[in-house]
Specification:
By secondary structure, this protein is α/β, with parallel strands linked by helices. It folds into two domains: 2-169 and 346-364, Glycogen Phosphorylase B (Rossmann fold); 172-344, 3-Layer(aba) Sandwich (Rossmann fold), CATH 3.40.50.2000. It is 45% helix and 15% strand. The protein has helices spanning 16-26, 42-50, 55-73, 91-98, 112-118, 124-140, 149-154, 200-209, 227-234, 251-256, 277-284, 295-301, 313-325, 327-344, 347-364, and strands spanning 2-7, 30-35, 81-84, 104-107, 143-146, 163-165, 186-192, 216-222, 240-243, 260-262, 288-292, 306-308. The strands form two sheets. It has a six-stranded parallel sheet with strand order 2-1-3-4-5-6, sandwiched between helices. Strands 9-8-7-10-11-12 form a six-stranded parallel sheet, with helices on both faces. Helix 1 crosses helix 15 (347-364) and helix 8 packs across helix 13. The longest helix is centred in the first third of the chain and has 19 residues, at 55-73. It is globular.
Amino acid sequence: MRVLFFGTYDAGRHPRVRVLQEGLAALGDHVVECNIRLGFETSTRVRMLRRPWLAPALALRMLRTWRRLRRMSAGIPPVDAIVVGYMGHFDVHLARHRWKHVPVVLDHLTSARETAVDRGVSSRPLLAVLERIDRSALRAADVICVDTEEHLESLPEDVRGRGVVVPVGAATAWFSPGSSPHGPLLEVVFFGLYTPLQGALVIGKAIGLLGDRDDIRFTMVGNGQDYLGTRRAAGHGAPVTWLDWVEPEELPSVVARHHVCLGIFGSGPKALRVVPNKVFQGAAAGCAIVTSDTPPQRRALGESAAFVPPGDPGALAEALGALASSRDRLQALRQAAKRRAEDAFRPPAVAAFLRERLRNEVLTS
């Protein structure tokens, strides 16, 4: 098959699209790309929701980007399927208009409404608008790519049959980062956007509870909504290095220099339905995974991770203290996570779920 990846996605910030591209190519498909990044981060889009007078800036940027996409797409030979990258709620309509008789996939890792709620938007009129945007995008797609069974069940009933569950996985670069941890301390890393879903405040409180330990050190990578609160919660706890940003191509080697990669610890509805990028990536990099005990994460990781109750900083601190005190347990978890990643998280293993569905769509289109 010839598969076109299309839209305004940013593969550096949201690497899921890169995993699908690498996976389909490794399975023998011809992958082409028509991508111009929009340039607005999720946090910027949420700010625009709170300040509607800024929305025209987003609309203008979108129109300019679409004009460039249309010109770029004019030179692309016929393709068998279109994959609209993550955050493609509007791009899917352009793809549908441009390729009327070609199956269109929407990579729908999360809804616009759910993202806004997670970022603190509570205005009912705004949430109603976002829900309409979500439904319109879902109806425009022939295939809706989601990441967990729980996410599939959350789709509107009239489009649920179009859904296919495709785990997030990890790009190839995460499997051979060329670094490894050393030294006597338990090195723990978190990277993310400090959203409530990620439970950054829970991590901050756990750091604060570990102030009496001299054998644990944290690296916290990223910035975002709960960043300042997380730093306040950490207080004078365990030692922490705070990094506002690491380039995407450098992140695998940074993570691999740690013994433990933290997952998510939020307790909201969305946090209970997802398996985040970071647990796939951390496992691929050879870290032990510590994350929240939820059904989708249990299914994804099996016995290859240490699980703690969502929203419980005490349990997180206790789990990390136990790993610092038992290097045998730590090594066993690291090896188990790496095996799990090799077996199930590489791009071809992940993309195979989508490829099977795409082949059926192409044969019947």
